[in-house]
Protein: Iron-sulfur cluster carrier protein
Organism: Novosphingobium pokkalii
Amino acid sequence: MAELRVALTAEKRTRRILAVGSGKGGVGKSTLSANLAVAMARLGRKVGLVDADIYGPSQPRLLATEGRKPEARDKTMIPVQSPWGVPMLSMGHLVQPGQAIAWRGPMAGSALGQLIEADWGETEILVVDLPPGTGDIQLTMLQKYKPAGAVIVSTPQDLALIDATRAIGLFDQGKVPVLGLVENMAGYLCPHCGQVSDPFGHGGAEVTARELGLPFLGRVPLDIAIRQKSDAGEPPAAGEGPQAQAFATIARAVLAALDQPA
Ligand SMILES: Nc1ncnc2c1ncn2[C@@H]1O[C@H](COP(=O)(O)OP(=O)(O)OP(=O)(O)O)[C@@H](O)[C@H]1O
């Protein structure tokens, strides 16, 4: 028993939570979380993923585990293995697809706790895809589970960046170090004419990061292949080519920041 306790303590100490947040919905937080987890796993890390976006869980779709039910051992959930080398848990695994989840704060908080306190085995980095916004659930989560760091996702336009700044405030309040900002949907490469245009502006997140004194971790272009592959449950980070490279670059920057001694 004593040995088990030692093992559990050691395990707890070595596992770090990486929170992925955004102020605004729909900016690609879930897409980044999934692909960051896959990209870090490809770099040889043991990575797990928790979909804490309890009101609109999308990770089962993104990582092709829709319809799978996690098993439980002694009331502890066992994560579902995705085909991409990343074990995962999502509220989407616990409810029927498409079923509305209308929980009040405390219930939502305890459900999230079950996902985070599951049997993550050897997982060393647990990526947590937070619900959008800066409400109570997010703050409670941060205070209770003390992520080692947070990554903020934003599109380049001003409104999203104002919300991203609010999300940074949330992490500051929870005393969680913000590792940096990722710009998503930056530059649209037209598959027909080959021209690059900037529907949401360009470089806004990099400027905001600089203004806030935060590292800029990289950008992901607005690319129809990313949406198509994501919808098909094939994370672009698991493939080859420019999309996979974009996520690998961000994963390296995140790991460098995460591995830095405090
Ligand atoms: N770089 C990109 N290029 C093309 N499509 C993208 C890109 N990033 C995200 N998308 C698409 O945009 C939509 C929203 O992305 P996603 O669900 O990741 O956002 P979110 O911030 O997690 O939203 P939510 O508010 O649901 O939490 C999805 O259809 C996704 O496939």
